[in-house]
Amino acid sequence: MIGRTCLWIYLVASVFATQLPAAPVRVLILTGQHDVLYHHWRETTPFLRSMLENTGRFEVWVEEQVEGISARTLQNFDVLLLNYRGPRWGAETEKAVEDFVGAGKGMITFHGVIYGDFFGQELVNNSRWRQLPNGDRGWAAYSEMLGATWAPEDISHAPRHVFTVKWVDGDHPIARGLPPTFVANDELYHRIKLRSNAHVLATAYDDPGNGSAPAGTREAGTGKDEPVVWTVPYGAGRVVYISLGHDVRAMSQPGFIAALTRGTEWAATGEVTLPAY
After folding, report:
1. Cα–Cα distance measured from residue 218 to residue 94, given in angstroms and rounded to the nearest whole number
2. Which domains does the chain have, with CATH numbers?
3. pLDDT tens, residue by residue, 163-190
């Protein structure tokens, strides 16, 4: 009788366990500054928040004053979403982010977070980037977390256009079950140098005949498949970078929404439960 009772309790518990929804993923968006001529964080941050919350999988908070936050601020979150490019955050905050990810949590980043102050770069005449003349190479761990560097002389992209992005690792949880390609209406960043531990999930062909950029300039297409989505391990944690997401119009594309939402879940948990679109 005791054996039957234990079996019944086990079966009932199993049924309830399969019916209970997964605990929500707790997301903190770090924002509050960007290069306002090109990337409007006040428009894109609410859109990102709604995008995530509308899946029913995430609870989302927004921090607009990032400098000064500590490990205690981050301790109740599962993943950070960076929508920021601006001044450095200071040693305490940067160390808190490093420790957060390194301890097994996640971070997802996109588009314009891959150049600027964090890399020791400054804008000259509002048109060209250069390495800071004092030899400052920026926040060293940030480049490690992103798994990439972008030399100032290479920071560019071909004219914005509609192009096809191809999933090159369809077995990865972020891409699994999705169509093999999706359409982007965006800027295609190029000439980014990936570290050896960056794992590319999606690429796009950078057509040298696109637009009006003169051949041979850094604004012209490279004629190569450029990385668009990749993942990076950092300590016990996971980082996702998506080169797309210039503005709300770019973010409204179904392919970007799938990559961002599924990438956020994977960065936080190491798996993806969200359905394919």
Report:
1. 32
2. 26-269 (3.40.50.880)
3. 999 999 999 999 999 999 999 999 999 9
